[in-house]
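Protocol step 4 of 5: obtain the predicted structure for the target chain.
Materials: sequence only (see below). No template structures provided, no constraints applied. The aim of this step is simply to have a reference model before the mutagenesis design in step 5. Sequence pasted as it appears in the construct record:
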Amino acid sequence: MTQSGQADSPAGRGTHKATAEVLARRIFDGTYGQGETLALPELTAELDVSQTVVREALKVLDAKGLVDASQKGDGVVRRREDWNLLDSDVLRWKLAAGASSDFFADVLELRRSIEPAAAGLAAERRTDDDLAALDAALDAMAAADDDPVLLVRADASFHTAMLLASNNRFYAQLRRVIVPVLVRRVREAHAGGGEVEHPHAVHAAVVEAVRHRDVDGAYMAMLELLDKSALDHP
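Step 4 output (structure tokens):
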């Protein structure tokens, strides 16, 4: 097993959750490679935590598809294909470790498959409360002017509200995947200092279609929004 020093040791924080996060971070940054054994005695000594804490941490990572935890307490790093990227913790660890352009491309494909359909359903099923949430997100976006922090916050609120307005329980749950990636991508775009058109108009077009219960219009407006976003945040 690769030794990583004490810089990210969870000692003193005292929980298996902190230890799981340290180990996950090492898996995602490549410190531990696919098929590598995470040996209980070595981890206990290196991280300065109890064997019970390490065992419980490995069980957490096993449940999230990152490792295979054995009866004796060791773990083996699983293939990338087995990692549960739909889990909010796994996604957060992945984004923190750095995501490649092909990762963001995969998420865009997911969004193009889900969000236009969600917008179409929202046009058909939305309640007055759903519409109020969408309008509130639009108002926040307009008020944000060019403040990147407020724009990101309003953008996240808009896409959350739209997925919830679909009134499909599975689409609603996908906000836990879509929104964190959206936030990271838009923040990076603003940090890069490039010129990005204010997003209010293209988002407002989707809401207007939803307001008027225009199913096809909402679908196409959301698709246009996503394609424009992909150009603004390559």
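Step 4 remarks: Strands lie at 37-38, 67-69, 75-77. The radius of gyration is 21 Å.
Proceed to step 5.
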